[in-house]
Amino acid sequence: MSELDLQLGNLKSEFERNERFRFGCYVIALLGVIWIVLLISDVNAELRRDYRTLLSSYDELAEIESTDVWIARKESQLAREEELSRLVWKSSSESITIAAVQAMVRTFASESGLLDYNLTVGTPQIVDEEAQIYRIRIRVRARFFNDDFLKFVGRVEDFSPSLNIENLEAHTRRLHGPNRAVFNADVVAYYKKGGA
C-alpha cells in the first residue's frame, strides 16, 4: 500500500468515528456548493444583461428602414419645404415684411372697392422657434357696398405668398345716406425671419 492509500484510509476511519470532523466536512462541502451556485448565478446575471443589450441593439436595428423608405421621406420633406417656402413671406427684416404685407392688404382693399378702410397691425408672434417662422396679424375694418368685401376676401385668399383670413364679421348698418355694410377681418401672414 502506498502512503496516499494509508492516509485516505485514516481519513475515512476518522470521518466515521469523529462527529465534529464529519460535521466540518459537511459544512465545507455545503460552502463549496453555495459558492458554485453563487458563481453560476453571477454568470447567469451577466449573460442576461448581455442578452438584453443585444436584444435592444437588435430592436434598434430592426427599426431602421430600408434605403427606399429614407429616400421617400427625404423627397416628402423637400416637397413640404418647397410648399412652405411658397406660402411663407421672406424678407431681410421684420419691418420690411410687415410693410410689404400691409401694402398688399391696402392694395387689395382699394382695388376691391372698400370704403374708409383702416388697418391695424399686431405684434408679430413666433409660430415655430426652430424654423424662425412668425405670424403677422392685420385687422381690417371697412365699409362696403354689395359684394365688395367678397372681392377683397377672394384676392387675399388667392394671393401667394400666403395671406389668410382667420376671422371675418360683416353686418349692415344704416349710416348717413344709403344703407352700407361694415366688416372686420383678421388677415394673417407668416414670414421667415431673415429669410431673404
Tell me what you see in this structure:
- This protein is 56% helix and 26% strand.
- It is an alpha+beta fold.
- Strands 1, 2, 3, 4, 5 and 6 form a six-stranded mixed sheet that branches.
- Helix 1 (3-17) crosses helix 2 and helix 4 (94-111) packs antiparallel against helix 5 (148-158).
- It starts with a helix and ends with a strand.
Biggest β-sheet strands, sense, barrel = 6 strands, mixed
What class do helices, strands and sheet pairing give?
alpha+beta
Portion of residues in beta strands equals 25-35%
Q: Regions with pLDDT < 50 over 5+ consecutive residues?
A: none
Number of strands: 6
Distance separating the two termini: 105 Å
**Average pLDDT figure:** 84
Give the helix proportion (percent range): 55-70%
Shape: rod-shaped
The helix tally amounts to 5
Question: What is the CA-based Rg, rounded?
Answer: 42 Å
- Topology pattern, helix = H, strand = E: HHHEHEEEHEE
Which helices and strands appear, and what pairs or packs with what?
Layout (H helix, E strand, L loop, with lengths): L2 H15 L1 H45 L3 H21 L1 E2 L3 H18 L3 E7 L3 E4 L4 E12 L3 H11 L4 E12 L4 E14 L4
Parallel strand pairs: 1-6
Antiparallel strand pairs: 2-4, 3-4, 4-6, 5-6
Helix pairs in contact: 1-2, 4-5
In brief:
The protein is of the alpha+beta class and 196 residues long.
Fill in the keyword field for this structure.
rod-shaped, single chain, 5 helices, alpha+beta, 196 residues, 26% strand, six-stranded mixed sheet, 6 strands, 56% helix
